[in-house]
Amino acid sequence: MKKFTFYILIFIFSINLQAQKKMIFPPNLKKGDTVAIVATARKNIEDNLQPAISWLKNWGLEVVIGSTIGLDHNQLAGTDEQRAADFQTQLDNPNIKAIWCVRGGYGTVRMIDLLDFTKFKKSPKWIVGFSDVTVLHSHLNTLGYASIHGIMPVSSKASEEAKESLRKSLFGEHLEYTVPCENMNRLGTAKGELVGGNLSILYSLFGSPSAIDCSDKILFIEDLDEYLYHIDRMMINLKRNGCLESLKGIIVGGMTKMKDNEIPWGKDALEIIDDVTKNYNIPVIYNFPAGHMADNRALIFGKQVSIEVNDLESKVVFE
């Protein structure tokens, strides 16, 4: 009897543990909802938000401009405390249904530990952005909450497809992508939770409370303006951290404006990624339209996706 009771307790514990790991999705937006635009990193002092405000208005949404827009503290949009306070205000305001980060750069990691997600957990909302916003995506993922990797308000040259994909993500419409086959792609199928973001940021977060768990995930990576040997160093770090060996698949977005030294590294960014990942028997999609480019399609981190990579095309379907 005692042995039977023990196994029952183990089973209940296992069920509870699985429940705890279930990703939480903020409510889909509806017309009339309000989106806050804030700065978590680089300053935004230009009068450049009207196009993005028009997008939101055309979608039937209201807009609140955060107090960090226009602040000028060297490279940053105010001090760490000012940026955290503005973000906290939007997190805690039940009338704000999504927070749209105005731009990337650097600085979100300086304020992440100043934030209190207590009220957010009671009333979650979508956090949107990419690049340096990867800090927030990763931190939210460790807390068990989904978020949206997509264009930002300063992405004035965003393609219509990129804007429409963000709208679909916010309003909970079906999202899937089919892209042409790349010669370097590794064929296969996989299903798993989508995580990731900017490679440099992911690399910088390993060892911190905001680091993602790669186990059984599909990893998306992109980057901008990095030296090629830096890409190699970061990919080797992912490998040595055990991230790559536990993945189910990889989606590689834009590796934009890469730099090389006077003595060439000898491989471009995609060749570096291929070299580090080639021994893992998982599908890989290269040149996916997401990252620092006009056609920056939205991705929902924390959501289950299925990927299919064949000789003709690659599909990414959000379930």
Describe the structure.
By secondary structure, the chain is of the alpha/beta class. It has 2 domains: 138 residues, Rossmann fold, CATH 3.40.50; 143 residues, LD-carboxypeptidase A C-terminal domain-like (Glucose Oxidase, domain 1, 3-Layer(bba) Sandwich). It is built from 10 helices and 13 strands. The chain has a 7-stranded mixed β-sheet. Helix 9 packs parallel to helix 10. The radius of gyration is 20 Å and the shape is globular. The termini are far apart.
Write the layout of secondary structure elements.
Elements: H1 2-21, E1 34-38, H2 50-58, E2 62-65, H3 80-92, E3 96-101, H4 108-111, H5 118-122, E4 126-129, H6 134-143, E5 147-149, H7 160-171, E6 176-180, E7 188-198, H8 199-205, E8 217-224, H9 228-240, E9 249-256, H10 269-277, E10 284-285, E11 299-301, E12 304-309, E13 313-318
Parallel strand pairs: 1-2, 1-3, 3-4, 4-5, 7-8, 8-9, 9-10
Antiparallel strand pairs: 5-11, 6-13, 7-12, 12-13
Count the DSSP helices: 10
Low-confidence parts lasting 5 or more residues at pLDDT below 50?
A: 4-20
- SS-derived structural category: alpha/beta
List the secondary-structure elements in sequence, H or E.
HEHEHEHHEHEHEEHEHEHEEEE
What kind of sheet is the major sheet?
Answer: 7 strands, mixed
Number of domains: 2
Rounded average pLDDT: 94
Strand content: 15-25%
CATH topology of the largest domain: Glucose Oxidase, domain 1
* Morphology: globular
CATH architecture of the largest domain: 3-Layer(bba) Sandwich
Q: Identify the CATH class of the largest domain.
A: Alpha Beta
> Termini distance?
43 Å
- Tell me the strand order in the biggest sheet: 6-13-12-7-8-9-10
Provide the CATH superfamily of the largest domain.
LD-carboxypeptidase A C-terminal domain-like
